Amino acid sequence: WFPGWAQNGYYNKQPNDDGLSEQDCVEVRRAYSLPSSSTRLTSSFMWNDRDCSTPNYFICERLHNDNDVAFVENSWIPECNKTILLSREQPKSTVSSPGFPRQYPNNVNCDIQIMASPGYNIILDFEEFVLEEESS
What we know:
By secondary structure, the chain is mainly beta. The protein folds into two domains: 1-59, no CATH class; 78-136, no CATH class. 6% of the residues lie in helices and 23% in strands. The protein is built from one helix and four strands; from the N terminus they run E-E-H-E-E. A two-stranded antiparallel ribbon has the order 1-2. A two-stranded parallel ribbon has the order 3-4. Strand 1 and strand 2 form a beta hairpin. The longest helix has 8 residues, at 66-73.
C-alpha cells in the first residue's frame, strides 16, 4: 500500500476508502496526487483501492496450468489505430503495444494518436520503451 507523501503529512495514503465510495477493488500503480493537484511517480508500484467499475488490468488468484496461462496472456488485447482524447473528464489513459509484455512483433503497425485540449500538456510515462528488434 502507498504510505502517502511524508513531506505532506502522509497525504493520499492508501487504503483510504471511507466505506461510502465503493472502492472495493485494488490496483497497482505508481502515480499519486499531491495536495497541489499535481501528480508524482513513486519509486515502485504500490497497491491502491479503486472503484470496481474502473476499466483496468486484473489480478486473479487461481490454480496455475497451461490453459490459465493462455487465458491471461490473451485477456488484454491492445487497440491499435485509434485516437485518445484526454480531457478534464478523462485526464489519463493507458496504452499497451501488441503482445505486451512480450516483445512488439516485427513489421506490425500500431498507431495511436494522443490529443488534449488547448492549454493542456501531455505527459508520457513509459514502463518500457524498445525501438528496435532485439535478439531473444
